[in-house]
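Figure 2 data, in text form.
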Amino acid sequence: MWKGRFQQQTAELLQKFSESISFDWRLWPHDIEGSVAHSAALLKAGLISQAERDSIVKGLQEIGQEIAAGTFKFKEELEDIHMNIEAELTRRIGDAGAKLHTARSRNDQVALDIRLYLRSECDSLLKLLREFQSALVQLASANAGVVIPGYTHLQRAQPVFFAHHLLAYVEMAQRDWERIVDCRRRMNVMPLGSGAIAGSTILLDRALIAELLDFPSVTQNSMDAVSDRDFAIELLAALAIVAMHLSRLSEDVILWASAEFGFITLSDAFTTGSSLMPQKKNPDVAELTRGKTGRVYGNLMSLLTLMKGLPMTYNRDMQEDKEAIFDSIDTVKAALAVFAPMLRAAKVNAASCASAVADPNLLATDLADYLVNHGMPFRKAHEVVGRAVALCAEKGCELTELSFEQYHGLSSVFERDVHSILNVPRSMEARQAIGAPSPQNVASQIARWQAHLA
C-alpha cells in the first residue's frame, strides 16, 4: 500500500502485531456492499467506465461467493479485510480494481463497514429480544394463576403472581429493545466520502452512496466521521444492560430451580449433570449467562478506555474496537438465543409455589392495611403488626394461629373479621392499582403483551 514512500519491507513481527484480518474478516459482506456503492459514485463522476464498473461488481461478487463458501484465502501480510478484498480484486481484473479506492481511505471505509455491520446486528438483536419476550409471556400465560412469594433483600416480602414476576422482565426487555432501536437510528448515518480526515478534492455523490446503502443521511464533518465510535459504545452500553437483565433473571432461575425453592423444573435439554454426582441437574444456561455478563461489561469498559485519550482523528488504536464489539454482540446474541427455548421448556411446580406462598407472614402488610382502613395511622399500624409478628416468633406460631383475643390485646381496632385478611386469594384480588398484581391486571398485561408481540 505504501511502497512508494518506504524503502524497506514491513518487518514480519510488525505484520503479525498489526494485522486485523484474523478478526475483521467478518466485515466482508459490508466491505463488498460498500465498495459496490462506491463504484457507482465513481461511475457517475466519470472516473471509471461502465465496463470497469461492471467488472468491479462482478469481481466483488465472485470474491464474496468464495468467502461465503470458505474457499477464499486471506493473507496476513495484507493486514485487513479491506486490503485483502481490494488486492484480490485488482489481481483478477487489473487496473479497474486499482481504481476502486479513488477518493476514499481505509479510515472512512472501515467507518462505513462498522456501521453497516452494526446496523445489521441491531436488526438481529431486536428479533432475538422479541423471541425472549415471547418466551417469557408464554410461560407467564401458561401459569397465570400461580402465586409465589415476592422477595426483597432475598427475604419473603409479599405474594405476587409468578406471571407478574416474569412480566417484569418483559418490561426490561422492552426498554432494551427501545434502546437498540434508538442506537440504530444514530448509527444509521453514511460516513463514506470523508476520506482519511478531510474528504477529497475528487468530488463524489455521497447522497447517491447513502441511497444505495439505505442510509437516510450522510455525516456532516469529515473529521468526526472517521473518528466517531460513539455509536459502537452506545450499542455496547445497551448490550451491557441487556446482559445485566439476563443475569438478574439467571439468578432468579438458579434459585427457583434449586431444591430449596423448587418453583421450576428445567428441561434436561437445557441443563447438565455432574461428572461425579449422579443426582445433579445444573442450570448451566443461567450460570453461564450470569458469568458472561462480566465480559460484556469488560468490552464496554475496554472501548470507553480505548477512545478516551485519542486526539482527532483516526488513530491505529481504533483497530482494537472490533474484537470488543464482535464479542459483546456474539455473547448477548448467544445468551438470548438459548434463554428463550430454555424458558419455553421450563415447567412450573405449582405445589411448591403454593407451599411457599402459604407463609402467613407474607400478608403482614395486609394486616397493617386492615388497621389503616379502620382509621389507624400507618406508622402505628406498622408497629402493631410488628408486635404481632414478634409475638408469633415468641410463641412459635403463625399469624393465622393468633386468636382474636390476642389480636385485640395488641390493638382494640382489630375486629372479629381479622382472620379473613390472612387469605392469599383475597389479598391478590385487592391489589388493583395500575401496575399491581391483581388477577385482572395480570391477565390484562399478558393480553397486552401477546397483542404487542404478535
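Caption note: The longest helix spans residues 106-142.
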